[in-house]
Records
---
Amino acid sequence: MNQPIDRRDLLKAGLGVAAAGALAPAASAQPKETIRVGFVGVGGRGTNLMRILLKLPGVKMNALCDINEANLARAQKFVVDAGQPKPEGYSRGETDFLRLCGRDDLDLVVNATPWQYHTPIAVAAMKAGKDTATEVPAALTVEECWELVETSEKTGKVCSLLENDCYYRETLLILTMIRAGVLGEPLYAEAGYLHDIRAVKFNTVPNGEPWRLDHTIRRNGNLYPTHPMGPMAWWLDINRGDRLTSLVSMSSRPGAMKEFAIKNFGPDDYRSKTDYKLGDTSVTLLRTEMGRTFTLWHNTNTPRVKEHLLRIQGTKGVFNSLMDKAFVEGRSNRNNDENWRGRHEWEETAEYRKQYDSKLWRTREEEAKGSGHGGIDFFVMSRLIQNLRAGKPVDIDVYDAAAWSVITPLTEVSVANRSKPMEIPDFTRGKWKLRAPIDPDLIV
Ligand SMILES: NC(=O)c1ccc[n+]([C@@H]2O[C@H](COP(=O)([O-])OP(=O)(O)OC[C@H]3O[C@@H](n4cnc5c(N)ncnc54)[C@H](O)[C@@H]3O)[C@@H](O)[C@H]2O)c1
C-alpha cells in the first residue's frame, strides 16, 4: 500500500497553492472584475441560486433559459427587481440552452435543470468558451463523466459542481479538526442522503420535482451520492493525495413508494400499479488507493426524519455528527489510568465546535444568513464567483464532479450483479498524487 503523503506538511510548506495552480484542470486564468452569467433552469433550485448570485458583487445576469415560460418570466422579474437590465430569455424548447451558450457576452453558464441535462449543458457551455457550474449530480453515466473531464481539459474551461454540502459548518469543522490532527490519520468516513422525498417525487407539494419519479421507476442504486460524498472527499483528500478505487453496492427491495401511492392516490391509480425499481435503502462501500474506506447511504423512499449523518474515524478518535458526540484518545478518556482501566465515554462536542470552527464560518456567517440550507447555498455560489473573479482554481473542479457523480452508474451495475465490485476510474489520470488538499480556510 502507498504511504499517505502528509497533507498538513504540504499545506504548511505552501506547496498547496502552487500545486493547486499547476495541476488544476482549468482555472479562469485571468482575474475578472465582473462575471457575466447565463442561467439555465430557473425552477425551485435555480431561482434560489440565481437570487443569491444577484446579491454578490461583480455578477451580471445577462441571459436566462427555461422551457417553462412562467418560470422564465418570474426569474427575469427578479433580475430587474435587483436593479439589473432585463436579461434575454431563451425558452424555445429543451435544446435552447445552445443558443444561450453561443452568446458572446457570457463568462459563466450555471445550470439547475433536471439531471439528464446537466452534462449536455455543461459540455455545450465549455465548447462555446464559457466556464460552467452545474447542480448535482454532474453526470448520469461513466461516459458523461469522461466527456466532462475531456471537454474541460481540451477547452481549458472550468466545470464546477455546485455541491453545497461541502460548505456546511459541520463539514468544515471536521475538516479543520482533521487538519489540526485531532482525529489522527482519517481512515473511515460514513455519510448518507437519507431524506424522505416521496412527496417531491410524486409532486404533491408546491416544490415538487416530478422528473425525479422516472429515475425511481427505472433505476436502482445510489441515485444521489454527491451530497454525502463531497464532504467525505474533502476530509479524506480524494483527488488530492488519495483517490477512490472501487465500490460494492447493495439495495433492499422497494416497498414504500407503492404503499405511498396506494394510500394517497387509491389502488386503481397508475402510480399504484407502477413497479418502482429503486430499492428503498441503498448502501455502498468504497475504498481508496491509500486503503481508506467509506460507507455511503441513500434512501429517499421511506418515512423518516432527514438524517444528517456524518461520521469520521481516525487513528486517534471519532466524531459523530448525528449523535453530536466525539471520542478522542487522551482527551475524552483523560481520567483513564495508563493501564487502560476506566471507561471509554462519549464527549460532548461543544468544546471542539468552539476550538475548530472553520475560518469561513467564523468570518462570513453574517453574509450567509437567510440563504438556503442554513447558509451553505450562499457559500457555494459566493466561493465560485470569488474564485473566478480572482482567477483562482475553484474549490470543486471537474475531477471532483466526475469522481463523485460516477458513483451512481457504478452502483447501478454493482446492485444489478449481486454487489459486483466495480473499479472507479481515475479521472485525474495520476494527478491526484500531487494535487493539493483543500485548504479548510476557504478564503480568497
Ligand atoms: N444542491 C441542492 O441542495 C439541491 C436542492 C434541490 C435541487 N437540486 C438540484 O437542482 C436541479 C433542479 O432541481 P429543482 O428542484 O429546481 O427542479 P425543478 O423541476 O423545480 O426545476 C427545473 C427547472 O428546469 C427547467 N427545465 C427543464 N428542462 C430544461 C431544459 N432542457 N432547458 C432549460 N430549462 C429546463 C424546468 O422548466 C424547471 O423550471 C436538480 O438537478 C436537483 O437535483 C439541488
---
Amino acid sequence: MRHKPSKRTLFAAATAGVIAAATAVASAVAAPESARESARESGSAARPKDDRPVEVEVFAPAEGDVAGAEGKGWFVDLEVSYPGGPDGLRRAGFSGAQLTGPAGHNNVPPLPGTFSPGQDDRLPGLVVLGSTTIDDPDRKFAGPGTNLADLFNVTGISDRSADATRLWDTWIVGDSIMGKDIDTVLTVAVVDDLDDNGVYDDAPDVVKDLNGDGRVDGKDLKALGVASEVEKVRFRLNGAPAA
Ligand SMILES: [Ca+2]
Ligand SMILES: [Ca+2]
Ligand SMILES: [Ca+2]
C-alpha cells in the first residue's frame, strides 16, 4: 500500500473483509481467489505492490451493486492518486477544480469545466468506460469505447503532499446512457504519458479496439498504455422507476 488510507478506504476494506469472510464460508474452493479480489479492490494492506506511478480507487459503484432508477441517478465516485511533491498537480494534468453538468450548468463560474463525452478538461489522463454505453453520434457517444471522463460533475484536490497528489472525481449519471435492467462493467484507468511531455494528459475521447477482438475494454487500454492498474467494477443498472 502506497498511501495512508482515507476513511472511505478503511470503510471499503472493512466491508470487503466481511464479504471475503462470507464468501469463504459459502465456497471453500473459491475463497482464496475471492479474498485476493476483495483485498485488491479495497486497496488493503494485502494488495500486491506494483510499480505503476498512478493509482485509481473506485468507491461507487461497488461490485455487485444494483444502481439507479430507470438507469439514471447512480454515482461514479473515484479517487486518482498521482505522484506527490510540489510539481504533482501539474504532472497530473490537473487544470482546476470543476463543478459542472448539462445545459445551464456547463462550464460556468465559479468552478467552470466542460461537460461532454470525451477527455476531461480537468483530469485529461483519465479514462472511464462503460461496457454498455450507447452509440449516438449526435450526442458524441460512440459505444463502449466512449471515454466518459468529461461527464464528471465535481472534481477537486483531496490530498497534496510529498507522498501523493490525490484528486477526487464524482459523477451523478443523469441519463440512461448505459442502459437499464442490464449487467454492465465500469472500467477505469489513467493513460500513460504517451507523448512524453511529463504530464498525464493523453486520454483519448474514444478508445479503439486496438487488439482487434471485436470489443473495447481494459485490454485495449493496456494496449494503448496505462500509468495505473485497470480497475473494473461489475454491477447492474436498475430499470424500475424510483416510485
Ligand atoms: Ca470536465
Ligand atoms: Ca503527456
Ligand atoms: Ca479489443
